[in-house]
């Protein structure tokens, strides 16, 4: 490993929507930094903490037994003001005054845009760690928090299925993922949902209420009367799950109930996969700092740690798994009858 300069002090922050595993990533950053003889200063409330000089030293003793908790012990925030040039300049001056050589930003694409913005005004190294339940970043097989969010959504869908089945009802379960349907697709597949309404599919061909009703009728005709569970990504239907359920009841007399999972998807114990991914990526971020690189995300591809240019993480597309989509749509829940080949 070639070290370009002796890094002595690094900063770390968690930014944007909190994600299960952020604490595990923070712990890994602190333990790895300590291992390599670096000091860590944590900024509270994301970029807001950089502007307010709200920081605290972090030593291994400060991160004991935090990896099993969701949320983030150093707090996260959205900070609109950070988008201004003056704010980035202020943050740069604050980092310099603290003699910080490198900054680790744990967050999603917005947080990485913030990191890039800061880098135009600050000479230190900046490394991103992908911490978001959305899984919408290019360059890493998964983001920290995604696996846990899918697990929670699947668990809720299983429970909904019990009651939906008992009453032969239609349920619409609203999940997070306003811009990307990863949680919707994976939880629908894992729980055997009959239909998904995802941003990627809506962009291609928006569903109409009559198409939804036809699919419910067709499913009932094939399998007999029973439950029908639909996974709806947030903001993909005017008025969301509640409005869609009301419409189906009022216009088509279908017994239908909405269920909004909301922020439940961000809490509880992070899954083993998220704890392990966060641990690996936190250490990888520190090792990338030692290599002298900057403006990259510490990612994971096919089990290997990689460095991906920060800009690529939001400029390049991370598409949904087309095979999962095909299986869910064409094989498990076909809209049209597939002609038999023999
Ligand atoms: P998630 O999508 O999981 O909520 P995120 O990191 O994408 O996470 P955002 O709210 O989009 O969350 O961004 C977090 C913060 O990053 C913003 O509140 C802001 O402080 C900063 N940020 C976002 N976009 C920019 C930008 N273009 N320039 C500077 N800073 C930005």
Automatic annotation (TrEMBL):
It is found in: Cytoplasm. Its cofactor is Mg(2+). The keyword Cytoplasm applies. Its main location: cytoplasm. It comes from the Bacteria. It catalyses: beta-D-fructose 6-phosphate + ATP = beta-D-fructose 1,6-bisphosphate + ADP + H(+). Coiled coil: none annotated. Its EC number is 2.7.1.11. Keywords: Allosteric enzyme, ATP-binding, Cytoplasm, Glycolysis, Kinase, Magnesium, Metal-binding, Nucleotide-binding, Transferase. GO terms for biological process: canonical glycolysis; fructose 1,6-bisphosphate metabolic process; fructose 6-phosphate metabolic process. It is an enzyme of class 2 (transferase). Pfam families: PFK (PF00365). Residues 9-289 form the Phosphofructokinase domain. SUPFAM superfamilies: Phosphofructokinase. GO terms for molecular function: 6-phosphofructokinase activity; AMP binding; ATP binding; fructose-6-phosphate binding; identical protein binding; metal ion binding; monosaccharide binding. Pathway: Carbohydrate degradation; glycolysis; D-glyceraldehyde 3-phosphate and glycerone phosphate from D-glucose: step 3/4. PROSITE patterns: PHOSPHOFRUCTOKINASE (PS00433). GO terms for cellular component: 6-phosphofructokinase complex. NCBIfam families: PRK03202.1 (NF002872). Belongs to the phosphofructokinase type A (PFKA) family. This is 6-phosphofructokinase.
